[in-house]
Structure formats: C-alpha cells, structure tokens
Amino acid sequence: MNQSLLELRHLKTLLALAETGSVSQAAKRVFLTQSALSHQIKALEEHYGLSLFERKTQPLRLTPAGERLLLLAREVHARISAAERDLARLREGEAGELRIAVECHTCFDWLMPAMDSFRQHWPAVELDIVSGFHTDPVGLLLTGRADLAIVSEAEAHPGVAHQPLFGYEMVAIAAHDHPLAAQKVWHAEDFAAETLISYPVPDAMLDLVRKVLKPAGINPARRTSELTIAIIQLVASRRGVAALPFWAVKPYLERGYVSAARIGEAGLHSELYAALRSDDANLAYMHDFLATVREQSFATLPGLSVLD
User: Fold this and answer.
1) Residue 159 in 3-state DSSP?
2) What is the pLDDT of residues 259-284, one digit of tens each?
3) Strand pairing category for 160-174 and 259-263
4) How many helices (H) and strands (E) does the chain have?
5) Which of 10, 29, 39, 90 has its CA 20 to 30 A from that of 171?
6) CA dihedral in degrees (150, 155, 160, 166; nearest 10)?
7) pTM of the entire structure?
8) In degrees, to the nearest 5, what angle opens at C-alpha 272 toward C-alphas 16 and 289?
9) What does the alpha-carbon distance between residue 267 and residue 172 come to, in Å, rounded to a whole number?
C-alpha cells in the first residue's frame, strides 16, 4: 500500500479554506504565503488526480473530493483538540474562572454560541459575562473584575495582552425606498443630511464616526437604540440610516427588510480583539476559549477576515 501524502498541515489548510472561503485569508490563518498554500493544494490535487475546490467561485467552494478531505480534517482536528484538552487538565487542573466584559452590542451574536461550546469542554470553569455594557472593559481587567475583555482596538496597557479574534466589514443600511438605496457605495457626504441611528456609545467607539465622518467634518443628526433589531426596524421605517457589521445585518438583507451598501470604495473594516491579563495568557482554558471563539465565528459568520 502506498504511503499517504496527507499530513496534519494539509488538513489545517483545508479547514482554513472552508472557514474563510478565500485562499488569501486561509493562507493568513495558517501562517503561509498565498503561493505556498496554493502549492500545497496543487500537490494534493496532483497526487489524487482530483480538484479540491472550484477556483472561480466567491466565496470559495469545495468539490466533492475537497468535502471528503474536509470531513477527515474536522474529525482529526476534533480528536487532537480533545486530547490536548485532556493533557492541559492533567497539567493545570480543570477548574478556573472566566468573566467576560464586552464593549460591542453585537458581540452577543457570536459570543453566546462560543460560550455554549466552551462549557462542554471545560464544565468546571466558571464562565460568566460581566453584566452591563462597558466603555472601559480593560479597566475591569486591571481591577480584577473581569478576566477577558472583547475590544475593538489593541491599545497597549502594562500587564495586558491582546489576542486577535477577527476582522469584519461595516456596511451602510437604508430602507429600500430611500434615495441612497440604489447606491452601491456611500461616502462621508452621503450621511450629511441623514439621521444616523447608532448604539448609545461615545463617538470614539463608532468606527463610522471616528474613521469616516469626523475626518470629513460631517456630523449628521443622531438617534440611538440599544438593540440591533430596533436599529434595523427604524431604518426600514425611514427614520434614518445606520452602519452595522455585515454579518449582523445579512439575515435581514436576505429577508428584504433593508438595503446595504459599502462605505467608501475600499469598505469600512473593523476588528475585534481579546484583552486579558498577561499572567493569564498561557492558561489552557483561556487559550481554548479564544480558539473556540475563532472557530465558531469563522464557521457561522459571513465575511470575516483574519487579523495579523
């Protein structure tokens, strides 16, 4: 019997391709150049005499042969992860505490499923969300009131480490019959005469205001709401326009509630990071929680990008 060409690195590549839907993003995910990843896939395809994915689709789509190897990759990844958790429990113990503080209103869309998955792997770790919305979640870390904070910028603080989670695109949304609904791209001046509906947070935490409107000297009328669905309903009723993560509005776009457009020719891109105390960065359950967040998010949220 011939020796298999398959190695663990190939399976990791297939997982990254499936989760990101992009060769360039998958390469970043597995710390390869795009050329190196392409050569790796080409070697597999030549070995098996089959294509593993369709190259002209966006997002990338695996062929039946690719799907079969992806199934193997998921099985192997799950077993390796379980074994490594067992070893970590033997080394560090099973118990711990993980209190999470968030500064983004849409975080709960992906945070809750990740928490549910994590609980299955670490049932003895006390997992909780620090109640309320926090404009200074890092301050909660430094005062011992939280163990992990979800933040939009990796600002340097003594004793605090940052781990990248994922990037995403913000899109402008308007009612279907709004004059701007037909535009594929909005620029700063398009917001000038509109009412901007946003979450009730400081302008420094609104990427649209901080990165687009303020540099252009534009300050539209404002209205706020705590809930994403309430913002979308207000937009659909022509009470104003908004800028929200694409993954948060995609279900409502598919149902025809509102229309969406890119903000600026290159798009408005935002990031999310996990901030934690440097002393906790090597805890096995903390490392596993962050890995779970990334895996769950890339598997379920559309349009995410890998952060450097």
Assistant:
1) coil
2) 999 999 999 999 999 999 999 988 99
3) antiparallel
4) 10, 12
5) 29
6) 40
7) 0.81
8) 65
9) 10
